[in-house]
Design brief:
Strand order of the largest sheet: 1-2-3
Number of helices: 3
Shape: flat
Order of helices and strands: EHEEHH
Oligomer: single chain
Helix content: 25-40%
Largest sheet: 3 strands, mixed
Number of strands: 3
Length: about 70
Amino acid sequence: MTVTVTQFKTHCLGLFDTLERCSEEIIVTKRGKPVAKVVPARDATDRSSLEGLRGTAHFTCEDLFSSDDIWEA
């Protein structure tokens, strides 16, 4: 959802209710350009969303810098 700064200022309490209910981010614009993003707060004790990512990414330092290219100094 995108709203102007003026709309946000006028309707911020209602927008927070919508944010809580729908979990949709709100982009606030000023003169047509995005200036802020309001996202739903996550409970710091709720780790369930992070648990689903456990074990899905692996890397080593070797992976970051290895290539078959030979560099000349």
